[in-house]
TrEMBL record:
Keyword Iron: no
Top-rank taxon: Eukaryota
Source organism of this protein record: Rhynchospora breviuscula
Main localization of the protein described in the UniProt heading: membrane
Family: Belongs to the amino acid/polyamine transporter 2 family. Amino acid/auxin permease (AAAP) (TC 2.A.18.2) subfamily.
Name of the protein described by the UniProt record: Amino acid transporter transmembrane domain-containing protein
One of the protein's GO biological processes: amino acid transport
Length: 470
């Protein structure tokens, strides 16, 4: 009896000021940070380095890492408002915006977030098809020889992927199932390490690093001056996309126990997480570039054919990761528009009548859904798949996503919220320094967006709609 009372007292000591029990530490937060940052964007890093060369490429990787870490440090102090240690908790990124900035900023930030989420779904659809095509082509070359005609189309694979996501989108609260995140994390590390190992092996096979100081040459590598410019700008967007982190930082910080203060713990976790990720990214980007030189593929894993079983494992890991990750990104969009629609038409059976579909061989368990959930979610996935079929450009889509998210979500809002939180006056030295960072990030984002859109426009002249080939 005494032991139970002791456990109750310990449990009460763990309850925070908002009634929740938090057990997160610097190490769990570091793990979450690494998992949040490392994703399919890592596969484009060797190509990105190749566009800029041995000096600007690594500098861009390190520069984006530093900016991401610096703004993450600013954002950690905004978890509680108005005081970073004793203020009211903000459980999400949007809660911080709502607590510190004007209502118009909440709307703009929400639009940027949802564009990023939807764009990532499009990118995941394209990446999945690319990885499946790579598996088919690798096996074809292995069994028929490298002189065989092994071109394959990804149109069918995009459609099949869309069908799978339609089915999964009907499941409730999929983004909250821990198993999905665990599998996604394991798969992202698996294909990243496989890509790193394959690149290191290829680099070792020819003994000396390939590549040039300025990257892809105009004319010599079959590219025009304009293409070189667009690809270099697009590469910046790819690198920015690979470091996407700020959107999830507040949610990770909300899991931390205190004392010590959450902002202090989260700053350490961000340092460790982004530090490890940067070492990993620089290794993959530079080793991949050293292995392939200026011919680095847009997706690292598509550049290898042997050992075919290891290449296949890497690409299959990408597919498994993205099947679950797609749902993590689309569920917040579903929740937002379904809540808005149900509030707008509170009496409509289309939005409120719940249908139950019993699961076979299970007692009392059923899939609950509304017609809105069945119809609108299906149409949303179909629309996403159609756009992916029309824009089957892995690197261009990643570059555009990075440019859309980098300035507003990674730099502008963390900087602006920190200025409001810390009460930094206009004209102070700190204010000017933060504004210079803000303006520089805006310029980079705009240039990256222009490069990605220009590359898409060029490629659309030479592709057939709804026909994706590798």
């Amino acid at each position: 009896m005494e032991m139970e009372k002791q456990k109750d007292r310990e449990r009460m000591d763990m309850v925070d000021d908002d009634g929740r029990i938090r057990t997160g530490t610097v190490w769990t937060a570091t793990t979450h940070a690494i998992t949040a940052v490392i994703g399919s964007g890592v596969l484009a890093l060797p190509w990105s380095v190749a566009q800029m060369g041995w000096i600007l490429g690594p500098l861009a990787l390190i520069g984006c890492a530093y900016v991401t870490y610096f703004t993450a440090v600013l954002l950690t102090d905004c978890y509680r408002t108005p005081d970073p240690v004793h203020g009211k908790r903000n459980h999400t990124y949007m809660d911080v915006v709502r607590s510190t900035l004007a209502p118009k900023d909440v709307i703009i930030c929400g639009i940027a977030q949802y564009i990023m989420l939807w764009g990532t779904m499009i990118g995941y659809t394209i990446t999945t098809a690319t990885s499946i095509m790579a598996v088919v082509r690798t096996n074809c070359y292995h069994y028929k020889g490298h002189d065989a005609k092994c071109n394959t189309s990804g149109t069918l694979y995009m459609v099949l992927f869309g069908i799978v996501e339609i089915v999964l989108s009907q499941l409730p609260n999929l983004e909250k199932i821990t198993l999905i995140s665990v599998i996604a994390a394991i798969m992202s590390f698996a294909y990243s390490f496989i890509g790193l190992a394959l690149g290191a092996t290829k680099f070792a096979s020819h003994g000396s690093p390939r590549g040039t100081i300025l990257g892809v040459h105009i004319g010599a590598d079959g590219v025009s001056a304009s293409t070189k410019v667009w690809h270099s700008l697009q590469a910046l967007g790819n690198i920015a996309f690979a470091y996407t982190y700020s959107m999830l930082l507040i949610e990770i910080q909300d899991t931390l126990k205190s004392p010590p203060p959450e902002n202090k713990t989260m700053k350490r976790a961000s340092l460790y997480g982004i530090g490890v990720t940067t070492i990993f990214y620089v290794s993959i980007g530079c080793i991949g570039y050293a292995a392939f030189g200026n011919d680095a593929p847009g997706n690292l894993l598509t550049g290898f054919y042997e050992p075919f079983w290891l290449v296949d494992l890497g690409n299959i890991a990408v597919v498994i990761h993205l099947v679950g990750a797609y749902q993590v990104y689309c569920q917040p969009i579903y929740a937002k528009y379904e809540t808005w629609l149900s509030n707008k038409w509170p009496e409509s059976p289309f939005f409120h009548k719940v249908y139950k579909l019993p699961f076979p061989f299970s007692k009392g368990k059923s899939l609950n859904f509304t017609m809105c959930k069945l119809v609108v979610r299906t149409l949303f996935v179909v629309l996403t798949t159609l756009i992916s079929l029309m824009l089957p450009f892995f690197n261009a889509v990643l570059g555009l996503l990075g440019s859309v998210a980098f300035w507003p979500l990674t730099v502008y809002y963390p900087v602006t919220m920190y200025i409001a939180q810390a009460n930094i006056k206009r004209g102070e030295t700190r204010w000017w320094g933060l504004q210079v960072l803000n303006a520089g990030a805006l310029i980079i984002s705009l240039l990256a967006a222009v490069g990605s859109v220009a590359d898409m426009a060029q490629r659309l002249k030479h592709v057939t709609m709804f026909k994706t080939e590798l």
